[in-house]
Write a structure and sequence with these properties.
This is Leucine-rich repeat-containing protein 74B. It comes from Apodemus speciosus (Large Japanese field mouse). With about 280 residues, this protein is of the alpha/beta class. Helix content is about 45%, strand content about 10%. It is elongated and about 60 Å long. About 0% of the residues have low confidence.
């Protein structure tokens, strides 16, 4: 079921019920009521089976609404058409600061819409794309996630955990991170970055002076990748939290990371989680 926070006026509930009777469809009725909303700031529509049509109806709301700043559309199977409508609407709406699109089965074709959003919406601060199906193509194709992250000028928190970023896509995404100067929290856990991706992230950390939290849990990183990641830790001065748990980095990888931090007198690292399948 949907939930709304901060309705403020009882009349909004009446408008919704009247519209629901007129349209015979809940989401269209909700969209009608929200269009004139002056009170709701957070909209939670998780797991409502909105699909394309529902997402398009809500996109129309976001084009007109100037109050809602936090939207959760997780687990709604909104599809490529629905996502395109949402992204287009958000690009025209500077008010929305947080968007959750977790578990919507978004595939590589969705990446171009997400990239356009990142390039045009400078007010968006937090984006959750976890539990989708974005793969290496989403990271490396022109005008997709990697280049968009490099050019984005507003996002401070990005969650891409439980996707399929690996290979060249992971490398391209890491290069985007290297150029980004706004992102503070990044979760890329449960992908397939591997050693090549870890190496690219290590290179990014050498230049990036903004990122504070990085989660790379369960990314198929071995000792070799951990040592390459450590090269970035030797010079990085802003990262406070690094999670590389559930990676087979072995004892040599653990020691290498610790030495990298020790050798960096300007390191800001407060938490280094290296727990793995086999004990270090």
């Amino acid at each position: 079921m949907y939930s709304t926070h901060g309705f403020g006026e009882p009349v909004m509930a009446t408008l919704y019920l009247e519209s629901c009777q007129a349209n015979s469809v809940g989401v269209q009725a909700l969209a009608s009521a929200l269009t004139s909303n002056l009170h709701i700031k957070r909209l939670d529509l998780r797991d409502n089976g909105l699909c394309d049509a529902g997402a398009e109806a809500l996109a129309d709301v976001l084009c007109k609404n100037s109050v809602i700043s936090d939207v959760d559309l997780s687990e709604n199977q909104i599809g490529a058409a629905g996502l395109q409508a949402i992204c287009t609407a958000l690009a025209l709406n500077p008010v929305v600061q947080k968007m959750q699109l977790r578990g919507n089965r978004l595939e590589d074709q969705a990446a171009q819409h997400l990239a356009a959003l990142l390039l045009r919406h400078t007010g968006l601060k937090s984006l959750d794309l976890s539990y989708n199906q974005l793969s290496d193509l989403a990271g490396r194709q022109r005008e997709t996630l990697g280049p968009a992250v490099a050019e984005n000028t507003g996002l401070t928190e990005l969650n891409l955990s439980w996707n399929h970023l690996r290979g060249l896509g992971a490398i391209a995404f890491a290069r985007g991170l290297e150029a980004n100067i706004f992102l503070k929290v990044l979760d890329i856990s449960h992908n397939g970055f591997g050693d090549s991706g870890a190496c690219a992230v290590g290179e990014a950390l050498r230049s990036n002076n903004v990122l504070e939290e990085l989660n790379m849990r369960n990314n198929r990183i071995s000792m070799s990748g951990a040592l390459k990641l450590g090269l970035g830790l030797q010079v990085n001065q802003t990262l406070r939290i690094l999670i590389v748990s559930k990676n087979p980095i072995r004892s040599d990888g653990c020691v290498g990371l610790l030495k990298s931090v020790r050798n960096n007198k300007s390191s800001a690292l407060e938490l280094l989680d290296m727990s793995v399948r086999a004990s270090c």
